[in-house]
Amino acid sequence: xxxxxxxRFKLFFDTLNISQKNFSSIIGLSIANVNAWxxxxxxxxxxxxxxxxxxxxxxxxxWFLFGEGTFKSETESVGEPTVNYKQQSNxxxxxxxxxxxxxxxxxxxxxxxxxxxxxxxxVDLVNINKLQDK
Length: 134
Known about the structure:
The structure is a single chain. The protein is mostly helical. It folds into two domains: 1-78, lambda repressor-like DNA-binding domains (434 Repressor (Amino-terminal Domain)); 81-134, no CATH class. The chain is built from six helices and no strands. It has helices at 5-16, 20-27, 31-38, 46-55, 61-66, 91-133. The chain starts with a helix and ends with a helix.
């Protein structure tokens, strides 16, 4: 197990083979944030953790947040739809395309809700442990 969340972030980031600029664009935070995390100047914020976990569904949240479990290195960005609208030319194809996008959106919403529930459970466990330690 790696010691710090920043070390886990570095390990994860190194598997992506993308620039800090591209990564910051994907998660919607500044390149300064990403650079600070990689250089141990600041800890990853809760917002940063949530944004990363939303975009990289194969990253194990338990490992990323707490260093427990296993890191799944086969990360995949979920920010782009798998259907290409430019290929659609007639109205029936466009209706199919729109329907497929809604299905993908529903799946992503379910994944986000699952991760949010998982995060809440871990936060509750941490809070319970803190109360028991007092």
